[in-house]
Design goal:
Layout: E1 10-14, H1 21-34, E2 43-47, E3 63-68, H2 85-88, H3 92-110, E4 111-120, H4 130-140, E5 143-156, E6 160-171
Parallel strand pairs: 1-2, 3-4
Antiparallel strand pairs: 4-6, 5-6
Helix pairs in contact: 3-4
Length: 179
């Protein structure tokens, strides 16, 4: 979407899984080559670190929008690398405090005033408090919950569609630096 858009100058992607990064670079080169909006002003940085641990201080207060869809506690297991959040934080409470809070803090600190955080996250059978924790953490940062979008995942045979929330938060008011 970034390279297909006429908007934006910088895309920062974060994924701790090493195997994915060569594929991401191939994708970026493809999009650059085929984008009608790319004229050397668009650039990207792909970071191979856990989202909760990465140092984004060089982007402090720079981002207009941050979109993230983090793993849902122990439901989405992308690999068995020790950097994976379900391995680092094996209980829901530890995952919320160690992963979700720290990831949202990084997102918050990267946003400009009046910037938006869009967060796709949902409760799971083993992570029943994830959505509530997301809303509570956002309030602690002073983010304004403007709306919740519904991401359509799939149709369920004869029972309609399955949805997940995308929370839309706006950073307004005074910028807070968390230590």
């Amino acid at each position: 979407g970034f390279y297909a858009s006429e908007h934006g100058e910088l895309f920062v992607g974060i994924d701790p899984r090493k195997e994915n990064h060569p594929i991401y670079e191939e994708q970026a080169e493809f999009y650059k080559k085929h984008s009608t909006f790319f004229e050397n002003e668009k650039r990207h940085e792909l970071i191979c670190q856990p989202a909760e641990d990465v140092d984004l201080s060089k982007y402090e207060g720079m981002m207009d929008i941050v979109f993230t869809s983090p793993p849902y506690f122990d439901t989405e297991k992308y690999s068995d690398e020790p950097t994976q959040s379900y391995i680092k934080y094996p209980t829901e409470d530890k995952w919320i405090d160690g992963f979700l809070f720290e990831t949202m803090k990084n997102c918050y600190e990267s946003l400009k005033k009046n910037g938006y955080l869009l967060l796709n996250i949902a409760n799971t059978s083993s992570g029943k408090s994830i959505e509530k924790a997301t809303l509570d953490i956002s309030k602690g940062f002073g983010l304004v919950h403007e709306k919740t979008l519904q991401l359509t995942l799939s149709s369920v045979m004869g029972a309609g569609y399955k949805y997940e929330p995308i929370y839309v938060f706006k950073k307004s008011g005074e910028w807070l630096k968390w230590n």
